[in-house]
Amino acid sequence: MQIIKKVKHETYHSLFLAYLWGSETSFGHKAFQDFINDILTDKEPWVDTIQQCSYKVFTEKYIKGQRKKGLNKKRIDLIFVDEKNKWCVIIENKIESKVHYSDNRSQLNYYFDYGERQYKGYHQLYILLSHTDNQKYENEKWKYANYHQVFKSLLKYHTGESLLRDYLKTLFALLFPNEQLDNYSTHSLHTGMTFYNRIISKIK
């Protein structure tokens, strides 16, 4: 993503996360559960069923069935749905953009209404994932998450496959633009401690 100048492109990040947090990789369900548990303040039993790998992931999901100006032109970045265990996680992904408004309503309102209607009776979790400061949009309906939490959820599985390692490099460039990975390429205790103090300790 650095080579093709897409480090800050939201759609590309959503596609990577759909795969890396998906149920088809050996680590995806564990990384996704780590991410969810990092966001929730209270333990919710449905989260443990992520380990069953019975969920599916949808990206750029168009919302249909509404009037011409409004909802049918909107799309949800990521939806994780487990029909067996009756839960869904809806994620709106922002890199450098802000929450959009139309007809005096934010896109988050539209997405929440869609989730309530489409997944009635499911355990529902709504997450605003943002690299910039969109935290003021957090409310009782939406949880706020940042890309440090994404980085943390994936970091301990970095030996899983090359694609994950490549994406972690992209996240590193996004989160720490003034740092160079080459500076931490050796395996000495000093470089390990430097990496921890300057990078890992900043991950909330």
Structure write-up:
By secondary structure, this protein is of the alpha/beta class. The protein has one domain (10-179): Trna Endonuclease, Chain: A, domain 1. Helix content is 33%, strand content 19%. The chain contains six helices and seven strands, in the order H-H-E-E-E-E-E-H-E-E-H-H-H. It has helices at residues 10-20, 28-39, 107-118, 147-155, 162-175, 189-198, and strands spanning 56-62, 75-82, 87-94, 101-102, 105-106, 123-130, 143-146. The strands form two sheets. The chain has a five-stranded mixed sheet with strand order 1-2-3-6-7, sandwiched between helices. A two-stranded antiparallel ribbon has the order 4-5. Strand 4 (101-102) and strand 5 (105-106) form a beta hairpin. Helix 2 crosses helix 4 and helix 4 (147-155) runs antiparallel to helix 5 (162-175). It is globular and about 50 Å long. Mean pLDDT is 82; it is low at 66-72.
Short overview:
This protein has helices at 10-20, 28-39, 107-118, 147-155, 162-175, 189-198; strands at residues 56-62, 75-82, 87-94, 101-102, 105-106, 123-130, 143-146. By secondary structure, the protein is α/β, with parallel strands linked by helices.
Shape: globular
Please state the average pLDDT score. Answer: 82
List the helices and strands in order: HHEEEEEHEEHHH
CATH class: Alpha Beta
What does the radius of gyration come to?
A: 18 Å
Helical residue percent?
25-40%
Report how far the terminal alpha carbons are from each other: 24 Å
Question: What is the count of DSSP helices, taking H or I runs of 4+ residues?
Answer: 6
Strand order of the largest sheet: 1-2-3-6-7
For the largest beta-sheet, the strand count, sense and barrel status come to: 5 strands, mixed
User: What percent of residues are in strands?
Assistant: 15-25%
- In quaternary terms, these chains amount to single chain
Any idea how many domains?
A: 1
Low-confidence stretches: 66-72
CATH architecture: 3-Layer(aba) Sandwich
Q: What is the CATH topology descriptor? A: Trna Endonuclease, Chain: A, domain 1
Output the structural class.
alpha/beta
